[in-house]
Specification:
Layout: H1 2-18, E1 25-33, E2 44-49, E3 55-60, E4 66-74, E5 77-82, E6 89-91, H2 93-97, E7 103-108, H3 119-123, E8 128-130, E9 135-138, H4 141-146, H5 150-155, E10 160-162, E11 169-171, E12 176-181, E13 184-185, H6 190-198, E14 205-211, E15 224-231, E16 238-249, E17 253-265, E18 268-291, E19 294-318, E20 323-348, E21 354-378, E22 383-406, E23 413-435, E24 441-461, E25 466-467, E26 474-494, E27 497-515, E28 522-523, E29 527-543, E30 546-557, H7 561-564, E31 568-570, E32 575-578, E33 586-597, E34 601-611, E35 614-621, E36 624-631, E37 634-649, E38 652-669, E39 672-690, E40 695-704, E41 707-709, E42 712-714, E43 717-728, E44 733-740, E45 748-754, E46 757-765, E47 769-779, H8 794-799
Parallel strand pairs: 1-7, 12-15, 32-36
Antiparallel strand pairs: 1-4, 2-3, 2-5, 5-6, 8-9, 9-14, 10-11, 12-13, 14-15, 16-17, 16-47, 17-18, 18-19, 18-46, 19-20, 20-21, 21-22, 22-23, 23-24, 24-25, 24-26, 26-27, 27-28, 27-29, 29-30, 30-33, 31-32, 33-34, 34-37, 35-36, 37-38, 38-39, 39-40, 40-43, 41-42, 42-45, 43-44, 44-47, 45-46
Keywords: Receptor, Signal
Signal peptide: 1-18
Organism: Mucilaginibacter paludis DSM 18603
Length: 802
Amino acid sequence: MKLIFCLFVILFSIKGFSQQSPLVINQVSGYITDDKQTSLPNTTLRLYNNVNDVLLASTTSDDKGYFEFKLKALNNCYILITYTGFKTFKISWEKIRYATDGKLGTIRLSADENLLKQVVIKARQAIVQQQTDRTVIVVNDQVKKLAENALDVIRLAPGITLSDNEDALQMSGKEKVEVMINNRVLKLSSRDLLKLLKSMPVNSVSQLEVINNPSARYEVSGNKGMLNIKTRQNTEKGITGNIDLSHSQARHNMGDMASNLNYGSGKFAISTYLAYHYGNYPTQTLTNRYLGSAVLQQSIESVDQWRDPAIRITAEYYLNSQQVLGGIFSHEESHNIASATTSSVLEQTSLSDSSYQTNAYGPNTSRWNTYNLNYRFADAKGTEINIDLDRSLYNKNDENNIVNNTSGINTLSGNRYETLTAITINTFKGDYSHQWKNKLKAEAGFKISGVSTDNYLAISDLTNNHTQAGGSQTNSFLYTEYVNAAYFNLSRNYGKWGLQIGLRAEHSKTQGITTGVTDHPLLKPDSAYLSLLPAVYLTYLPSASHAFRLSFNERIKRPNYSALQPFNYQLDAFTYQTGNPALRVQKNSNVELSYTYDDRITFTAAYTHTTDLFNPIIYTRGNSIYHTTINSGTMDGWNFNLNYPVKITKWWNMLNKLNGFYNHFNGQLYQGILNAGKWSYALSTSQRITLAHQYSLLINARYNSPFQNLIDYQQSNANVSASIGRKILKEQGSFRVGISDIFSMQKTNTLVNFGDLNYTQNKTWESRRLSLSFTWRFGNKKVKETQDRPTGSRDEKMRGGS
């Protein structure tokens, strides 16, 4: 009997052992490459059930071509792999079930030689992808038909628009937008930033990441968004470069010259960006102010002239395949002259009218020097370490000469205001991240920064050329700020769900010392505070056609250094500007829900609550008007965005954007309590039409409805622009001619009626302009380019006015 029982146990064990096969699988992974073993990032992979072809999950490969599926159990399924320009590849269940530990190894895709027959497949390829904390635009063949450079790719992003003068990027519902390249923030002036993006050919860009609510890792200030451009990494030796020239003409002219040169030699890579900007830009402003029983009419004719050179050098040395040493030097210089003639007429009921003419002449020079040393370690196991050491120096000499002429009497009366500003910023920061094979990722980091701003104001009497007698002769303001920050992020994907949680802690200590003519120091502002800033993201992908993301974060915003200066300036006979050293830190709480349909159409709804809102305001003292910045209370903002691309024909593509928003303000102002809000909307469309013989036509149009900004009610305005271009020099160059604001609808009309403030203001400028541009790209197109680093002082520099 015992023998029979033993035989039974042995047979059962053998049967059980024989059934322990690769059928029990919960994870599948591998690498995607082309025939030349080059990694293919952003490849689309979909997992289907063999029985009824139901989609179980979908994913994309990372920068190294790596992909991974992880479910509770995989059984009787197959994988379809698609990538534009390559044949669709199918991995059968037989191959999956017998893969060791679910590792499929390297999968090579074959190029599709008959691309013209794959129009339907191309049209279905993912353009927009939702990830845990960002939206990704994949730069595939469709995008390359719509974009010539990195800036054109950004134009396609949901909620992103370019200002009418093409000198600033704007993100709907956000105060500002930062731009990164390969996770490294670019700290350039707005004009230099856009020129650099124009110099990056679209073939060098692999994807664009739109980060509406940045995670705890990013040191953003206030309600700010971010863009991250990921480039295609090449390893060939040689030289490549870009030359970009542009010029626009109305009654006055302005233009840009920029060059980006890259050199790679094995382990060493260096990039140099050179630029020079020039311009003369006039504006006309008409203002009618009602000051009790008097009416002040002002007409201002102003011209801004600038000559701005810039240089940026980035170098990297590859110690080995895992470690990189780098350095950055940048020098930005600005030579500006602002001149204005203000004609003022004060009409009073009981007195005769008084007329004044104010001539203002303000030359200023500013310089930014930034030095950065960095180290990066990254291995194949998912570990990455970044260390940055920065020092930034800023100097500005700002002069403003005000000469008043009263009632036609030819007398010279006025003052010279000379302001000297010196800012020193030192930062040390480090970041660590590790991603495990189960898709769990942890990030942690720190930042230590110290800022010192030294400001000096001297007031001289222009008639006698000596320091003004009576009142303040000189004034100095020394401001110091120390910030220690640390953060932690944890994220993981669970099948169709994704979750990320993070926390950033910032401890700040500030002190300001003001010394006036009486030599009595005023200690303002002095404070020390700890800010805990959480960030949470939840994503859900129910199918290949639908993607949802819900996010929440909190941020603080510190005031710009210039806004803290307790200095008074005269702008004209009736207008003054003053600083506010008692400004408190602004806090933003942001919630956003985004939805993507069919990998291309996106809809976003966002809510922002702001306390201690920074806002420029105006108040009056008698007949004088003062401009300053205050904490104006709270703002609740709702923002809705729709991004809808349409392919009308093979040669005609359209991108439509709709933005609706509501801002409600509530707070105590100088004139009383404000409790008001207004719904507004903005429409824009971009048409790209491909013509014969390498020509292309671009038409851009937008309309902004009336909207409210605190007490300012701004009327509607619009703009229609068009340009035609042609590729030349064997498609390595292009030439374009365009005209902006064809119907002269770009203007600003403002109405204010709150408390004792009652005025209208109409502002126009040379918005209708003829433009010419030329671009030429030369050299070896496979050169390894340096990866722009995020200098640790970028946030502090922005507050310095750069």
